[in-house]
Write a structure and sequence with these properties.
alpha/beta; ten-stranded mixed sheet; 10 strands; 41% helix
């Protein structure tokens, strides 16, 4: 099945990480190149700076500020041109890539969110931006986009990952199957390798107060039952991906039982299998665990390094 042409919004802030996000996008195994909007928000010069223009004595300062403003816009244009050329050199048609240098209206994150409602299939953001001291683990803009974008998948890019191998963290939830369908829509028709992965914690590490009273035989039976349920989910997920145009020979499944942490197990599997991309539903089976984002997804997003994490609503 040939994938339909998609639209992707890439938030660019002038950092090396945002360029790496563009490089990641350029290497994704699309069967048909999507349309891409490179979106940069130019922060406003605080109105207080312009207020000094009221005084004739401050005209020199006004000239200096105006010069600085022009210089930063020039650098922004040069950076966006570089990002544009990365995609074009990777085979994206020039007419499918648009540069939008946007003067901030209500704030960087809110301007990106407002733009994202214009028919995009995904929003791409670097894990950290220019300010590496604030929110050391995850950049402030990335955090805000992940928290507030509930209508479109968000791809958070950390480091400079190779996207060719994809790990889907799967459970039996509706959110997980939506993540599978999003992957199929974006990568359908490609030859990329995809692993469907599920992990369950050992009872002794679970939050159930009665776990210590359960014997080993009961735990084995429980694991067997969950495994059988997941086999049905794996089969359904593979059918969805094959129907979307992925090669059945490139689809694999793995079930890990008895792990101490599901998030750590997902990250460990990504490292073990050299998966540059982790695809997850925003919420899992427990919808009361966290209202906006499932606990496991949140932990993976904050713990993982040098990977892309797709968070699908």
């Amino acid at each position: 099945m040939q994938q339909k042409n998609k639209r992707i919004l890439v938030a660019i802030d002038g950092s090396d990480q945002s360029l790496n996000a563009v490089r990641y996008l350029s290497k994704l195994p699309f069967s048909s190149k999507p349309k891409v909007v490179l979106f940069h928000v130019v922060r406003r010069i605080d109105q207080a700076f312009w207020d000094i223009g009221v005084s004739p004595m401050s005209r020199g300062q006004m000239t200096e500020i105006s010069g600085w403003d022009l210089e930063r816009k020039k650098k922004a244009q040069e950076f966006m041109n570089l990002a544009f050329e990365i995609l074009v050199e990777a085979g994206f048609p020039r007419e499918s890539v648009r540069v939008n240098i946007h003067n901030s209206k209500v704030g960087v994150d809110r301007d990106i969110i407002k733009e994202s409602i214009n028919g995009y299939d995904a929003v791409v953001v670097g894990r950290r931006g220019l300010n590496k001291l604030k929110d050391l683990v995850l950049g402030s803009i990335a955090v805000k986009l992940v928290e507030k974008l509930s209508h479109v998948p968000v791809w958070v890019i950390g480091g400079n990952p190779e996207p060719g191998r994809i790990l889907v963290a799967l459970d039996a939830s509706e959110g997980s199957m939506k993540a599978v369908d999003h992957l199929g829509a974006m990568a359908g028709g490609s030859k990329t390798h995809v692993e469907l992965f599920h992990a369950i914690r050992a009872l002794k590490t679970s939050q159930f107060a009665y776990a210590k009273t359960l014997d080993a035989d009961y735990e084995k039976e429980l694991v067997k039952e969950i495994n059988e349920e997941m086999e049905i989910t794996f089969t359904t997920a593979k059918e969805h991906l094959v129907n979307a145009g992925l090669d059945a020979q490139e689809l694999s499944t793995k079930f890990n039982a008895g792990v101490s942490s599901r998030a750590s197990a997902i990250i460990g599997e990504a490292r073990l299998g050299a998966y540059g991309t982790i695809v997850m539903g925003r919420r899992g089976l427990s919808k009361v665990e966290d209202f906006l984002m499932g606990r496991v997804t949140n932990k993976v997003l904050h713990m993982v390094k040098n990977r892309a994490v797709w968070i699908v609503n």
